[in-house]
């Protein structure tokens, strides 16, 4: 268990995040515990959450998405664009 003051947390958030990978970090305000920082994976474990289909889809690489139009006609011709 790691405890840091809110002042130290504000001065080095990255350090607090690194510590949270190893276990919960208790953040104190005026010497009293006020918050707990933990990794998202640890949160999921204690809350009983599992991966949803949305989480799995979000992990897909961007190049798997087909962003090209299926019609080879230029866009301005499809919408009645420029005429002679």
From TrEMBL:
SUPFAM superfamilies: YefM-like. It comes from the Bacteria. InterPro entries: Antitoxin_Phd/YefM, YefM-like_sf. Gene3D superfamilies: YefM-like domain (3.40.1620.10). Pfam families: PhdYeFM_antitox. Transmembrane segments: none annotated. Belongs to the phD/YefM antitoxin family. Antitoxin component of a type II toxin-antitoxin (TA) system. This is Antitoxin. It comes from Asticcacaulis taihuensis.
């Amino acid at each position: 268990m790691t405890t840091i003051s809110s002042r130290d947390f504000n001065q080095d958030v990255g350090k607090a995040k690194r510590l949270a990978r190893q276990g919960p970090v208790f953040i104190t305000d005026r010497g009293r515990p006020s918050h707990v920082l933990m990794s998202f994976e640890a949160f999921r474990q204690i809350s009983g959450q599992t991966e949803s289909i949305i989480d799995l889809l979000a992990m897909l690489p961007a190049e798997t998405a087909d962003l090209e139009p299926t019609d080879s006609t230029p866009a301005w011709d499809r919408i009645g664009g420029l005429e002679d």
